[in-house]
Design goal:
mainly beta, Elongation Factor Tu (Ef-tu), domain 3, Double Stranded RNA Binding Domain, 2 domains, 4-stranded antiparallel β-sheet, 12% helix, globular
């Protein structure tokens, strides 16, 4: 589990930037924060330690939800996410405190980005699992995009679980790990990461310090 601090943001889109060496870097622009600490979880009361961050402000809401976030001066957040952190780090944050991208991320560092991928509906095995398809010659008839055999009639006499077949494609929570931070724009709250980020433009993403890179640095 990634126990590093992060922020909630929105995917803005893709662009390219030039480095000091004159090289081109294809990057994804993420509007990360500012986020407000709207709640805390402690081991004594909840059994684990974490902070709850809110991003954006809802234009309309119900009275129960408004009462739940009545202690937040910024208003009812549009998106709320929970970040598991060690207890000593949770104690360092106060409810109502705002967090900016420049306080957490730095250029040259690495981050993990989690978002919901684009939904592509019910797709076949060639699009969903990159199957090659069947031959189109030597008598093959109406079988070019089929998945082939899925089992056997004797032992074990069933289809194994997890067999790659046609079905729902996309619309899942996907985490892309260890993306390099190319640029951090403090005033705009923009973080540019090298590579692609799941989801459509305008989709909500969670960006946090990389888990695997942190382990390598400590090793």
């Amino acid at each position: 589990m990634n126990t590093s601090l992060g922020l909630i943001g929105k995917k803005v889109g893709n662009t390219q930037v030039f480095t000091d060496d004159g090289e081109i870097r294809r990057v994804t622009v993420v509007e990360a924060g500012p986020c407000t600490v709207v709640g805390k979880r402690t081991v004594a009361k909840h059994g684990y330690s974490a902070i709850q961050l809110g991003f954006g402000v809802k234009k309309t809401t119900t009275r129960p939800v408004a009462g739940q976030f009545s202690h937040v001066e910024a208003g009812v957040p549009e998106v709320v996410r929970e970040f598991r952190l060690p207890a000593e780090k949770v104690d360092g944050y106060e409810v109502g405190q705002q967090l900016k991208a420049s306080e957490i991320f730095e250029e040259g560092g690495f981050v993990d980005v989690c978002a919901t991928s684009k939904g592509r509906g019910f797709t076949g095995v060639m699009k969903r699992h990159n199957f090659a398809g069947y031959k189109a010659t030597h008598g093959a008839h109406e079988y070019q995009r089929h998945g082939g055999s899925i089992g056997m009639n004797m032992t074990p006499g069933r289809v194994f679980k997890g067999k790659k077949m046609a079905g729902q494609h996309g619309n899942k929570r996907v985490t892309v790990m260890s993306l390099k931070v190319v640029k951090v724009m403090d005033e705009e709250g923009i973080v540019m990461v090298k590579g692609s980020v799941p989801g459509p433009r305008g989709g909500v993403v969670t960006i946090r310090q990389a888990a695997k890179k942190a382990k390598k640095a400590n090793a």
